[in-house]
Design brief:
Blueprint: E1 2-9, E2 26-27, E3 30-31, H1 32-42, E4 47-52, H2 56-63, E5 68-71, H3 78-83, H4 86-90, E6 94-100, H5 108-117, E7 123-129, E8 138-141, E9 147-151, H6 158-161, E10 165-174, H7 175-183, E11 205-208, H8 221-241, E12 245-246, E13 252-254, E14 259-260, E15 265-266, E16 270-273, E17 277-278, E18 283-284, E19 289-291, E20 294-295, E21 300-301, E22 306-308, E23 311-312, E24 317-318, E25 323-324, E26 329-330, E27 335-347, E28 352-364, E29 369-370, E30 375-377, E31 387-389, E32 394-395, E33 400-402, E34 405-407, E35 412-413, E36 418-419, E37 428-429, H9 441-451
Parallel strand pairs: 1-4, 1-6, 4-5, 7-11, 12-15, 13-16, 14-17, 15-18, 16-19, 17-20, 18-21, 19-22, 20-23, 21-24, 22-25, 23-26, 24-27, 25-27, 26-27, 27-28, 28-29, 28-31, 29-32, 30-33, 31-34, 32-35, 33-36, 35-37
Antiparallel strand pairs: 2-3, 6-10, 7-10, 8-9
Helix pairs in contact: 1-5
C-alpha cells in the first residue's frame, strides 16, 4: 500500500513574534519544513502533501513543485488541519503518515522503523518518555496499559501534567480509518478546536521511540536555538566518526549539504554553509565562514576569513582576515594574505598577494607577485573591465591597474605606478613624477613662518 505523508505547516507561530511562517525559520541553516520533507522521503513516502495556512504563498514558493498542497482556511486545531487534506486522502487507498513541520530533529530512520512496525495497525502514533514533557499531548493509559486517550497540554490538569510519556504528534493511519475518526471528533473544549490527538480514543498502537530529543517541537526562538544546537552537534559527531578533527564540537556549525573529507582540521567557531567541500589535510582556523565553495587538499584558511562561491586550489593559504568573493579561482599553491579582497578572478599556480590588495575582474597567470596596496580598477561607473596579467609578472607596492589593460609575461611594474596602457613582455613599466630635492628647504620654510 502506498504511503502518503501529510506535513502540518499551517500554524502562525505566534510565539516566534514574526510575520513569517514558523516552518520557514531555519534550524542549523535549513528551513524546518525541509527536515520534515527529507525525513518523509527517507521513510518511503510516495507522496508528500503540505498543509499550509498562514504565509501559504511563502511556503509554496520555497518548496515549489516538490510536494502537493492543501489549505487550512481557519486555525481550528490539528485535526482540522489534517481534514484540509481530506480530498487527497479519500482519493487514494493508502496509509497516511502525519508529521509536524516544526519538528526538525525527527530522523528518517525512526520514521521508517515506525512505519514498518505499525504496518498492521489501523491507527498508530509515536510516543516517547521525556524528563520534562512539553509541546504535545500526554498519553493517558488504563490499568492494563492500553491507551485510553491523549491529552493536549493546554487542557491537561495538574495530575496529567506530571505524566512523562508524551504523544509526539506523529501518526500513521489507514486513510479510511483516519477520515472516519476525524469526522467524529468532539470539539467541546475551551478553544472549540479539533484535536488530532482524539483519534486514538477508540484504540491505537503506541510505538515507543528511544530518543526524546528527536521529538522536540519548536514554538519559540529559544526552542529553535536549542534544536539548531542539537543538529549542529550531530553533524559534528558524524564528521568526527568519518575522520575529521573538530577541536570543539559545541562551536562547529556546518550545513546539511557540506562535505568534509578525513584528516581535515576544524577550529572553533567556524561556519561552513551551502554546497561546500573541504578536502583532506586542510585546516580551517577560528572565526572563518565558507559558503558554496571548494577547498582542495592541504590548504590553510586562516583566522576570520570569508570565502563565498569560490575555488581554492591545493596547498593554498588564505587569510587571516581575507575575503574571497564569488567567482574567485585560486589554481593552487597560492597565498592570499591579510586584508586582501578578490572577486571574479583566476589566480594562477604559485601566484600570491600577501596583504592590503583588491583584485577584481582579473585573469592573473602563474608565479605572479602582487605587491602590497595593489588595486585593479575594474569599474568605470558604468561597466566592469578586465585586467590580464601574464605569468611571472612582478607587481610592486601601491600599483593601480586601470582596466582594461594587459600586462605581458615577465614584466615588472614599479612601485607607486598607475598603469593605463598595455605593458609588453619582459618590460619595466613605471609612472612617477620626477623626484625633486631642495636641501635646507624645511629650516628656511619654518623660519619664514615664525617671522609672520
Amino acid at each position: 500500500m502506498s504511503l502518503l505523508t501529510i506535513i502540518l505547516a499551517a500554524g502562525k507561530g505566534t510565539r516566534m513574534k514574526s510575520e513569517n511562517p514558523k516552518v520557514l525559520f531555519e534550524a542549523a541553516g535549513r528551513p524546518m519544513v525541509d527536515y520534515a520533507v527529507s525525513a518523509a522521503r527517507e521513510a518511503g513516502a510516495n507522496e508528500i502533501n503540505v498543509v499550509v495556512g498562514s504565509g501559504a504563498e511563502l511556503v509554496k514558493a520555497h518548496l515549489g513543485n516538490s510536494v502537493t498542497y492543501s489549505v487550512q482556511k481557519e486555525q481550528r486545531g490539528t485535526g482540522d488541519a489534517v481534514m484540509a487534506a481530506e480530498e487527497i486522502i479519500k482519493d487514494k487507498k493508502c496509509r497516511v503518515l502525519i508529521l509536524c513541520g516544526d519538528m526538525p530533529l525527527v530522523s528518517g530512520a525512526t520514521l521508517r522503523n515506525f512505519v514498518e512496525e505499525a504496518e498492521h495497525h489501523p491507527v498508530s502514533f509515536i510516543t516517547v518518555d521525556v524528563e520534562k514533557p512539553f509541546g504535545y499531548g500526554r498519553v493517558v493509559r488504563g490499568t492494563n496499559g492500553n491507551v485510553l486517550r491523549i491529552v493536549e497540554q493546554k487542557d491537561a490538569n495538574e495530575n496529567e501534567k506530571r505524566i512523562k510519556e508524551i504523544n509526539t504528534g506523529i501518526y500513521l493511519c489507514d486513510g479510511d480509518t483516519l477520515l472516519d475518526r476525524l469526522s467524529r471528533i468532539d470539539t467541546k473544549n475551551a478553544q472549540g478546536e479539533f484535536y488530532l490527538t482524539d483519534i486514538v480514543s477508540e484504540g491505537a498502537y503506541a510505538y515507543k521511540a528511544e530518543d526524546e530529543d528527536e521529538f522536540m517541537g519548536v514554538n519559540t526562538r529559544a526552542h529553535l536555538a536549542a534544536a539548531s544546537k542539537m543538529i549542529w552537534r550531530r553533524r559534528a559527531e558524524r564528521f568526527m566518526e568519518e575522520g575529521v578533527s573538530i577541536l570543539d564540537p559545541d562551536t562547529f556549525y556546518a550545513g546539511a549539504d557540506v562535505e568534509i573529507k578525513k584528516d581535515a582540521v576544524i577550529y572553533p567557531n567556524v561556519y561552513i554553509e551551502g554546497e561546500t567541500i573541504i578536502h583532506s589535510g586542510t585546516t580551517i582556523y577560528p572565526g572563518s565562514r565558507i559558503k558554496d565553495s571548494v577547498i582542495e587538499e592541504n590548504c590553510e584558511i586562516k583566522d576570520n576569513t570569508l570565502i563565498q562561491d569560490s575555488f581554492v586550489g591545493k596547498g593554498s593559504s588564505v587569510g587571516p582576515m581575507a575575503q574571497l568573493r564569488p567567482g574567485t579561482k585560486l589554481l593552487g599553491e597560492n597565498k592570499i594574505g591579510n586584508f586582501v579582497e578578490t572577486k571574479k578572478i583566476s589566480f594562477g599556480e604559485g601566484s600570491k598577494a600577501s596583504h592590503l590588495t583588491y583584485l577584481g575582474d582579473a585573469d592573473i597567470g602563474k608565479d605572479v607577485n602582487v605587491g602590497c596596496g595593489t588595486i585593479t580598477c575594474n569599474y568605470d561607473g558604468i561597466n566592469k573591465h578586465v585586467t590580464t596579467i601574464g605569468d611571472g609578472v612582478f607587481v610592486g607596492s601601491d600599483v593601480q591597474f586601470v582596466a582594461p589593460v594587459n600586462i605581458g609575461k615577465g614584466a615588472l611594474i614599479g612601485a607607486g605606478s598607475t598603469i593605463t596602457k598595455d605593458v609588453p613582455e619582459d618590460s619595466l613599466a613605471i609612472t612617477r613624477a620626477k623626484q625633486l630635492i631642495k636641501e635646507g628647504w624645511v629650516s628656511s620654510w619654518k623660519k619664514s613662518k615664525e617671522k609672520k
